[in-house]
Each structure stands twice: as structure tokens, then as C-alpha cells.
């Protein structure tokens, strides 16, 4: 390569790396997203970074049962509506999260019989999916139904008391997918799970359910892999094997909740600055594994600025700094890693 060619290459590379994540993703029909909270949309840096960098958003909490239905009579769509409006105004797709999650149900549900619960769930899915028909392109229909051993977790929907299908294993999950499909036949329908990224008993159970649903033509589009990494260590070969087996079924995989937590001080800053490099490497590798599989069609982080991450709450403030932008919205090495990986891999394959 002569000097002139080298100069052109440098200019092209530098120009490419100056673009946003969303710019790179859109050129290739890929989705790069983040969880969002409507209460921060009024903060200019929050809204500007969100609209500039991402072509997909997902309400972090605003579409959960406890947010939409604080009591039996109230339906509060306002916060979710604001996020959907923001997405439409900025040409972004919306992932809906989540229609059935045994973990965080409002207390008032507990006093119902199976028949009432079944009616409530069907009605909820019809109303929520119906309201956002044509606006939410994909739903996490069911979230976190399996335990570490691959057994279905106890929940108000499954067996306590359940919607009347507990003796039939995953039938209650299937029912939720069928109701969601009836409410919006165009929407992609996902099962979303935590700690089932690599190969383990839980991901085996998810895979078995996915294969069964696919074989019996249950309306089922794919699996969301949350990808909360809490110990600076990602099992890349396991993640690759799991994405391979799921996409081999003809299903899509979305990475739905990626974050990489670091030990932090009381102000939320990394205790060991060198961890930022390790963190960036994990972001790079996970993005690369997703992009290597054509069926892995979206990469989403659980928030984008360290200013507002759930990790502090989840780890009693021992960990944080888990996202691609710091507390001042400055791109971190993790951001650069994501950006470079999108440039390199999407341009190579699309
Ligand atoms: C978390 C939110 O980030 C918090 O704001 C909320 O208090 C609890 O839920 N898996 C999921 C997400 O599917 O819905 C969770 O979100 C994080 C773990």
C-alpha cells in the first residue's frame, strides 16, 4: 500500500468511526437499542443521545403490569405512550416489555381465582398489544419463567394459583403467545430470559420450549437473551453456541438487556480504571458474536448512561458504570468498542 492509499484508508476509517451507532446499524438493517425511562426525556442530553445513537428503544418499566395497572381499576398508559411517541417522532422502533412476568406483579392480582386470572391476562394482552398495534414491532411476551435448574418458576400465572394450565408445563406461556398474536398478528413475539445466555440447564429448557413451539407452529418469533454481566466475565463460546442453536431453529435472537457492571466507589465511578478496557472488550465480543449470526437481529443495552442504570439499585451500590456512556454522557471505551464492531462487521457482511 502506498502513502496515498494509506491516507485514503485512514480518512475512510476515521469518517466511519465518527458516525453514531444507529447510523451504522441502519445502513445494514440492524437494530441497536436501549431501555429507556420516560421521566428522563425532559433532560436534553438524555433525549439527544437517545435519538442520535439508537434506532430502537424499550420501556425499562413503563409497560410492566405494576406500571400500567397500579390497582385493579386503573390503566395508566401515559408514561408508555410518551416513549412510543418519542420513538415515532425520531424514527425508532419500539420493543415492548413485558406482558407476563411472574416476578413483579402488582399485589392486587394475588386474590384472584384461576378463571379470573385467565380473563385478566387475556384482557390485559388484548388491551396493551392492541393499543400499540403497528407501533410496537416486537414484544417480550413472557419474561423469566424458568429457574436455574430449568424448572418453571412458581408464579401467580403458572401455579399460584395459575390460569388453569399448571399441570401442562409451558402451556400457560403458549397461551400468552396465542393471545398476543391474536391482538397483533404482525408483531414479533419473544420469550425473554436472564442467565440463559450460555449453555446451561436454564438455556436448555428455553431451547426445548422454543423447539417445541416452533415444531407446533405456536406464534413465536424468537428468544431475548438479557445479558446482564455482573462479574467482568462472559462465557463467549457458550453464548455463541446458544445463539447458534436457537437461530438454527429459524428463530431470531435479540440481545435485550446488555450491561457490564464494574466495582464502583460511592460516587459510582469505577474503582479500577483499567476495568473500563476489560468492559469494552466484553462489549466488543458480545456485539461480534451477535453480528456473526444473521438471526441475531438486535443488540440492546439496559439503559445507555451510567447516570441512570439499574445496576446500582440491584447491587446495593457496590457495582455500576455498566453502560456505554458515563454519567456526563461522554462515550466510554465500551461505546468505541460497540461502534468499531458495528463498522467492521456490518460493513463486511451487508
Ligand atoms: C428492572 C428495571 O431496570 C428496574 O428499574 C426495576 O426496578 C426492576 O426491573 N430483567 C428484566 C428487566 O427483564 O425488566 C429488569 O428491569 C432487569 C432484569
Textual characterization of the structure:
This protein is of the alpha/beta class and 350 residues long. It has twelve helices and eleven strands. Strands 1-2-3-4-5-6-8-10 form an eight-stranded parallel barrel, surrounded by seven helices. Strands 9-11 form a two-stranded antiparallel ribbon. It is globular. About 3% of the residues have low confidence. Bound molecules: (3S,4R)-3-hydroxy-2-oxopiperidin-4-yl beta-D-xylopyranoside.
Features:
two-stranded antiparallel sheet; 350 residues; eight-stranded parallel β-barrel; binds (3S,4R)-3-hydroxy-2-oxopiperidin-4-yl beta-D-xylopyranoside; alpha/beta; 12 helices
Provide a concise account of the structure shown.
This protein has 350 residues and is α/β, with parallel strands linked by helices. It has helices at 3-17, 21-27, 44-53, 65-68, 78-89, 114-131, 171-183, 201-215, 236-248, 275-292, 311-314, 333-349, and strands spanning 31-36, 56-59, 93-100, 136-143, 188-193, 222-225, 228-229, 252-260, 262-263, 296-301, 319-320. The strands form 2 sheets. Strands 1-2-3-4-5-6-8-10 form an 8-stranded parallel barrel, surrounded by 7 helices. It has a two-stranded antiparallel sheet with strand order 9-11.
